[in-house]
Amino acid sequence: MNRILFDKSEIVSDIVRFDDVRAEHAIKVLHVEKGQIIKTGEIDGLIGAGEVISVSAPGEAPCVTVRVTHDKPSIEPWVDLILAPPRPRVMKRLLPQLAALGVGRIVLVGAKKVEKDFWGATLLKPEIYKPLLVDGLMQSGSSIMPSIEVRRAFRRFVADELDALFPTRTRFVGHPSQGATKETSCDGAKERVLLAVGPEGGWTDDEVSLLEEKGFARYSLGPRILRTDTALVSLLAQLMERYDTAGL
Q: Using CA atoms, how far apart are residues 195 and 112, in angstroms rounded to an integer?
């Protein structure tokens, strides 16, 4: 954790008392002491610092109390994601990384090769996925929570909703090919990026064609078929290098 985040409801008159994994991390990893200043923030709010008021004694259950001052804006998300979800255990591993890398809006779509039983997974419940996203935010030091939406009808979503939800012109579809292709007509544009990544079996040719009709440029890492988490993190890392994401 590079910044400890709190829900708005936890902050009472600028004071927060916490006794969960965050407190354990603060005591065992950060070795906090009374009077120490640590990085803190409010989920979906401002960031700043917290002064440690009290720490539980050795041998007691971990508990820390801080007085927070949150007066700075967080780093904003720079990219949105259309994702044909992988298996739940892969998705669970992936969510913290997406939050840490600056993804803002995640739309899970029902592409042809998505496993049908995914849509009944408990991972789709906010109480399950939100702690994973918060974990990624605390790693990156930001506080803006990604949103997750589900659109099981891929073709209907692309035809009827995509442009309204994502007005950006900077659009990429991740798709393996024989040569690494990285075309775009908007290279360096100062606008939010939209990336579409398929299931582990890949997009179908028809699905890629539909996205290309909506202005998506193919972006390939080469001919190898990668796991979704490997491909997605690699694609986001490369796009971060190409675009000035700090001011988005």
A: 18
Please check whether residues 60 and 99 belong to one and the same domain.
no
Phi, psi of 25 (to 5 degrees): -65, -45
DSSP summary character for residue 178? S
Q: Is the CB of residue 71 less than 8 Å from the CB of residue 88?
A: no
- Cα–Cα distances (Å) from 5 to 1, 68, 87, 123, in that order, read 9, 11, 28, 22
Of the residues 72, 104, 125, the one at which a domain ends: 72
**3-class DSSP assignment, residue 181:** coil
Domain hosting 61: range is: 4-72
Residue 29 burial (CB count, 10 A) = 9
Spatial distance between the Cα atoms of 66 and 51, rounded to a whole number of angstroms: 5
Residues facing residue 151 across a β-bridge: 109
Q: Residue 6 is encoded by which pair of tokens?
A: 């709190």
CATH number (domain holding residue 39): 2.40.240.20
**Percentage of residues in the chain with pLDDT exceeding 90?**
74
Answer whether residue 71 shows pLDDT above 80.
Answer: yes
The DSSP secondary-structure symbol of 232 reads: H
Place of tokens 């796009």: 239
Residues 42 and 83 in one domain: no
First to last CA, the chain: 24
The token pair that represents 174 in the structure block: 């991740």
- The yes-or-no verdict on residue 188 having pLDDT over 90 is no
